[in-house]
Every structure is written in C-alpha cells, then in structure tokens.
Amino acid sequence: xxxxxKRFQAIISHCKEYGFIFPSSEIYDGLSAVYDYGxxxxxxxxxxxxxxxxxxxxxxxxIVGIDAAIFMHPTTWxxxxxxxxxxxxxxxxxxxxxxxRVDHLIEAHADELEATGKKVEAEALxxxxxxxxxxxxxxxxxxLIEDRKIKCxxxxxxxWTDVRQFNLMFSTQLGSVAEEASEIYLRPETAQGIFVxxxxxxxxxxxxxxxxxxxxxxxxxxxxVARQFIFRMREFEQMEMQFFIRPGTQKEWYEYWKNERMQWxxxxxxxxxxxxxxxxxxxxxxxxxxxxxxxxxxxxxxxVEGIHSRTDFDLRSHQxxxxxxxxxxxxxxxxxxxxxxIETSIGLDRTFLMIISEAYWEEDLSTAEKQDSRVVLKLxxxxxxxxxxxxxxxxxxxxPEIARAIMDANKPHFRCFYxxxxxxxKRYRRMDAIGTPFCxxxxxxxxxxxxxxxxxxxxMQQERVAIHTLRDIVDKQIS
Length: 479
Ligand code: GAP
What we know:
Elements: H1 5-17, E1 21-23, E2 35-37, H2 39-58, E3 63-65, H3 75-79, H4 82-85, E4 87-92, E5 99-101, H5 102-115, H6 119-134, H7 138-147, E6 164-167, E7 171-174, E8 182-185, H8 191-195, H9 198-204, E9 211-220, E10 235-245, H10 250-266, E11 275-279, E12 289-297, E13 300-311, H11 313-322, E14 328-330, E15 335-337, E16 340-347, H12 348-359, E17 360-364, E18 373-377, E19 388-392, H13 399-410, E20 416-418, H14 424-433, E21 438-442, H15 444-449, E22 451-456, E23 462-466, H16 470-478
Parallel strand pairs: 3-9, 19-20, 19-21
Antiparallel strand pairs: 1-2, 4-5, 4-6, 7-8, 9-10, 10-16, 11-12, 12-13, 13-16, 14-15, 17-18, 21-22, 22-23
Helix pairs in contact: 2-12, 5-6, 6-7
Bound molecules: glycyl-adenosine-5'-phosphate.
Residues 189, 191, 221, 223, 232-233, 236, 238, 240, 303-306, 343, 345-347, 349-350 line the site of glycyl-adenosine-5'-phosphate.
C-alpha cells in the first residue's frame, strides 16, 4: 500500500500552482474542506464528467440521464432514511472543543501504533472498534477511547464527552419570511432525485426494465473530519446511476455492474493492481450487498466508487410516504412489482484526485552536461484540459499569423492554447505541467513547406508533420 505524504503534498501544491484547484475564498483565508476548481481544473473535471456521462448514457441504449434539483421536498429525506440514519458517532474533546468522528479518531490512533511497529495491537484496536460500532455501543466506544488513552491532536488531553450521533445533512430555510419558512436539506446524495423521478422517466421515456437513470451533480455533507484535500469535502459532486431490475435478479446485475464499472476504471489507463474491491461487511440500511472500488492513492487504498444492491427500499419507502404507487407492469411476466435497484455511485472529485495522482510525475532529465528535471501530468489525452498548444518560435517574421491560423482551424474541434512568450523549452515545460499531450511549434521552415514540429508530451519526441494532418493526429488520441 502506498502511503506517500510527500508526494500527496506535492500534488496539492501543483494543483494550486498550475490553476487546477484553489482553496475556496482564499482571500479570506479559505473555508475548511471547501475548494474551487480553477481554469484547468474545471476543464479536467468537465472532461471526466463528460467521459462518465457518455459511457453511461450515450453508449448504452437502456440508460438515460436527468438533472434534478438540489432542493427536494423534506419528506424525501424522511423516506430515504437520511433524517433518522444519516449520522455518525461523534465525540468532543472538552478542553480543545474539537469534535471527532469516533472511527476516524480511533483509526488515527491505530495508524500511529502501526507506524511504531505495534501492528498486532493496532489490528486488535480496529477489530474492537468494528465490534462496538456494529453493536451501536456508544458507552463501549467511549470506554475504548479512554482505556487506550487516545488524545486530542489539538489539546493533547483525554478529556472526552459522551459519544453522540450527529446528522450529516445541511439544512436551510425555504421562503423569504422567517415565519413562512420551512426547513429543507441540501441533498446529501443525488440518488434520491432519480428515485422520485422514476415514474416520470419510465412513463415518458417508455422505458422497459431493465433500465437505468443517470445523474451528475452536487451533494453536500457536513463531514466532521473533512481532510485530505478534495478526498473528503463538504460540497462535492457525484455521478450516480440507478439501474432498475426485476426482483430476484439483483445478484447477477450486481456482479454485472461491478465488472462494468471496473472496466470503466481500467479504460482510464490506470493499471489493474492500483485498484481493488472492498466488500462491505456492515451494510447500509437500504442494501443487501455493497462494495467499494478502491484506488491506491498516495494516502493509501481508499474508496472512489460504491456499488450497492439497494433492493426496493427507496421506491417502496417513497411509495409509503407519498402514497403514490411506484410500481412497474412487466409485460414479459404479466406482473406488477416495485423494481429492485443496483446503484453505481462515484465521486467526481475523488475521480479527479485519482486521475491526477496517477498522472503526476517528477522526471529527472539530467545529462552529463547539465542538470534538468520536469514535472509532467501524463493525463489520458481524452481528459487533458488542453489538447493542442500552438507555439510560434518567435513573435515576428509572420510566424504568429500562421500559428493563429492553426488555432482557428483546430479550436472548433478541441481545446487549443496559443502562447508566444518565453523560450520554447520553457513553454513546453508549462504545457507538460498541465498535461497538454501535443505541442506544435511554428518555425521558419513552416513558411516554406507548411509543416510544423509536433512534440509528444510523454516521450518528448518531436517530428515534422504537415499542418493539415494536425486535427487527425489529435482526434485519433482523444476519441
Ligand atoms: N448514493 C450512494 C452514496 O452516496 P456514498 O458511498 O456515501 O454512497 C458515493 O458516496 C461516492 O461519493 C463515494 O464513493 C465518494 O467517491 C463520493 N463521496 C462521498 N462523500 C464524499 C465527500 N465528503 N467528499 C468527496 N466525495 C465524497
């Protein structure tokens, strides 16, 4: 398992320095665990979202997409179980007033034990924690923290409150006047927007089971311990798909989606050994099977995507609370039923972090003559923020005009970038750092034979090609 904090910090700095991710409202010292995507980050994020959307909707004839509102009727969250169940056990340190998620506090202590060679003790601690969490034994968890003398990382004391549940949903008021206002929640998952629209889509789209509904969008969770950069945030984006199936077929569809989603991950060019499945032992209230796809981040193997067999829990519960029938008539077996659901749920920000972690390389290019190095993002070309950089060798002799014409011919088809300032080597390095797969240089020979030098990001090889072939070269790599 990788656990390379230095590399992780280097990636975070790189994201800031090259316009991928900034702390939110940084001029006011930022807002904890909230981030803004900059000029290249928003392009990369959009490309990841589009790639997911295309593979889940356009390339599948039985999945359609929707875009539901973030605000939903408050009963939605009662029916989904989030009002009663979407909470974590928390504990506060009375001296520092810092609040911790109990499992995170204990896990951090287990990590410390392991780092000091006490692996068996760490494993025993985690096993005991799992047992107490499964039994919802809050006094037992507090006793475990006290017995092991686990300290607050801020105050350094073990003066703990009781363990309490803390709901993770953000609430706000709908309505302009306080008296008229009613409390609503910011959605903690996009999935419920799909469930409440199940009948609308099924009827208007004349969808036949099995079929899916996909959606991407923001979700909000008042994570207590939000840390590790964009891995765990309070405002994040999900890409979810609910696949509606005949009851009794959930096992085979669950396996099908596990495999399909893993194939999608591998199509990003990330090697198989960087992924693993993690089966859930303690299942959420709605699931009869669940697993995570974990990726080997610089901070270790962690969840990127969840695949959940959600039974008919959500539709049945919405039927109960709304008093609207959530049934489907299956003409093949001549029966009405509430469909079962397999869900695939992937975090867009975590996928971003995974892709950038995989792409980030520090390369030593030193030769006997001189020391040299570069930082390069070896992003899959289809996801790179900029596909083609057009660089006139000098600012004169008509070269910028030719470069501009190349820009005009190609920018309707993919994202291009024009730059004429600084030495060509420096410009190449800047493009490497944001992951641009192709740079073309317009030089004096271009004026004679309409060719340019194309430089490939990963190999740094260069070759002479005709200007009119550029679009084809790039298209082949990004399609
Ligand atoms: N509808 C099911 C659901 O929301 P989840 O496992 O709670 O399941 C799905 O979340 C995915 O959303 C996770 O695998 C992760 O990628 C992402 N995610 C969840 N909480 C997040 C957070 N606080 N910050 C960033 N991404 C998060």
